[in-house]
Amino acid sequence: MKDLLKVGQIVNTQGIRGEVRVYLLSDYKERFEELEWVYMDGNIEEKFYIEKVRYKNNLVILKIKGIDDCNTAELYRNKYLTIDRADARILPEDTYLIVDLIGLDVYSVEGELIGKLKNVIQGTANDLYEITSEKNPTKTILIPVVEEFIKKVDIEEGKIIVKLIEGLIE
Description:
170 residues, mainly beta, Elongation Factor Tu (Ef-tu), domain 3
């Protein structure tokens, strides 16, 4: 199976001409303007060619070739739009794809294993790392993704180093 990245999810139809509303799974809204086609739900056997891109509030409205009415568009509701990893944008330094962060071990600056990164919660002010505690796997630890707390991210070594403050993981 190819290495694929989710870039959006079809959440609804738009109008009667087969357009779909897409919830963006990227911090770059214009992403779809750079794409000629996408896969649907990771099915690499079929490419869906993008004919038109426009925006409505925080959603991307796509017209996909061959989806020409709202009934056909409805069939694709909740499907994920994916691309080959090779087509991913080049990220600025110290910026990572969430998919590459999930599962990394999280250590304190003192070298203690805190847990594994379970999710990245994207917020308006800053993101939060959601970590499953090593000591108590039923416990979730939230650490703000700010320079004060995140000291090092090393994808190759599979770990994140964080500086904890009193009360952060109790």
